[in-house]
Amino acid sequence: MFLFLVVALAVVVAAVTLAVVGGGEGGGPLPEAAPERLQDPLPPDRPISRADIDSLRFPLSARGYRMADVDDALSRLGAELAERDARIADLESALAGARTPPGHVSMDKPAPEDQQ
């Protein structure tokens, strides 16, 4: 009985090895699976909205998420945040400039000694 199990195990291992390496009907090894790509990338033609971030889903790979997809999304989000921070700083400086009076204008009559 033990000999039969050893022979059966050897036959199964040989069959799996031949199927993977390429000794089966296909005439070659197993085809390479195409890697999953990000289905809904961030829109390049408009600013990113909250809905874009909420709908962003990364495809899984063998060890988690694809690093290239995550890096691309993070760099795009970083660029958007930097652009918005610069715009906010410009608007705040413009607002601060609009709030300060341009100069002090006196509405008082000049003193008589100033008119000479």
How would you summarize the topology of this molecule?
Layout: H1 2-21, H2 50-55, E1 60-61, E2 64-65, H3 67-99
Antiparallel strand pairs: 1-2
Give the CA-based shape: rod-shaped
| Mean model confidence by pLDDT | 79
Distance linking N and C termini = 131 Å
Which series of helices and strands comes N to C? HHEEH
Which stretches of 5+ consecutive residues score pLDDT under 50? none
Count of helices? 3
Strand composition percent: under 5%
Detailed description of the structure:
This protein is mostly helical and 116 residues long. Helices cover 51% and strands 3% of the residues. It is built from 3 helices and 2 strands, in the order ααββα. Strands 1-2 form a two-stranded antiparallel sheet. The radius of gyration is 36 Å and the shape is rod-shaped. The termini are far apart. The mean pLDDT is 79.
Provide a brief overview of the structure.
The protein has 116 residues and is mainly alpha-helical.
